[in-house]
Amino acid sequence: MIRKCVSLTAADNLTRSITLAELSRLAYSNNTEVVEAIAKQSGYVRTRFVNNEDSQAYVFKSPDDVIVAFRGTEIGDPHDWKYDLAAWPIRGLGVGRVHRGFHDAADALWEPVQRIIWKRDDRALWFTGHSLGGAIATVFAIRQDAANRTKLRGLYTFGSPRVGTKAYVKQLRTLHVRWVNNNDIVPHMPPWFLGYRHCGIEHYVDRNGRLSPLVGSKLCWDHFCGGLRGLARGRLDRISDHGISTYIDVIARML
Prior knowledge:
The protein is of the alpha/beta class. It is built from nine helices and eleven strands. Strands 1-2-3-6-7-9-11 form a seven-stranded mixed beta sheet, sandwiched between helices.
């Protein structure tokens, strides 16, 4: 189950975050009938599934919002790994360069999603996703901003990898809250030495399950030390910290 839908524009940041994280988890389901039933029971008036060229997303419509939740990497799906591993940056929209796989995954969904979200609908628009889904959501948001469509209100991502070079990601003007859980390895990929950079407001959850007050170089150092602590304890939290259910749990504890 997921919590009852709320007006995301009126909600506080944590309520907004956990609502979008739960929808990001729901986006992993292949059973569209179950997803529609869960969403309807939670107050969403319509649910649409978009599946095109091995990329998937759900569009959830509430009385106040339209939310596009992009599906993340499924471990057993070679098509998802095809997108993840196509890491050489190519020329993207506007300036800078973008991860080729994320660019192609967004391309596959762009037209069908646009047809749903812009058809006689003036509700607030939100993009969200976990892992690969967060990367696709970010590329979508940058394209949406470039189209000067003011309907987009926010982007919330969970355990998202980097999507492009500094010039590319600086084109994003929409509010972007980017959650990173402790030692999650995926937000450190693709590597910075290929020119990749993050964007948005980082919400880094430390090893004690609290939002870190650190910023800049101090936050980077805390990331690094956290990884060393995990290795020293023989833990595989570089992987376990990445699960969308783990993100939901840590945000729920903050609430």
